Here is the input.
Amino acid sequence: MDITDILNAINRQILNPIIFLLFFLASIYFVWGLIKFLANSDSDEARTEGKSHMVWGIVGMIIMVSAYAILALVTRSFGVDMPFESQ
Here is the structure.
């Protein structure tokens, strides 16, 4: 077993599932903010809170996409295959 196999296993079994889980949670947070924003059209305070949730959900998704891109860049430099990548 060489370093490429170890990095591939870490990437496939640990890092990618964590990134996708956090992206999913950020998406859920965004949707929750959208629902709160639309459901509370009469309350300015609730709409502001919904906007805040949507903004932080988008920020979280951007961070997770950036983390995946950095991970792809680093793993390609070591010759490790990224899952979900077209060959």
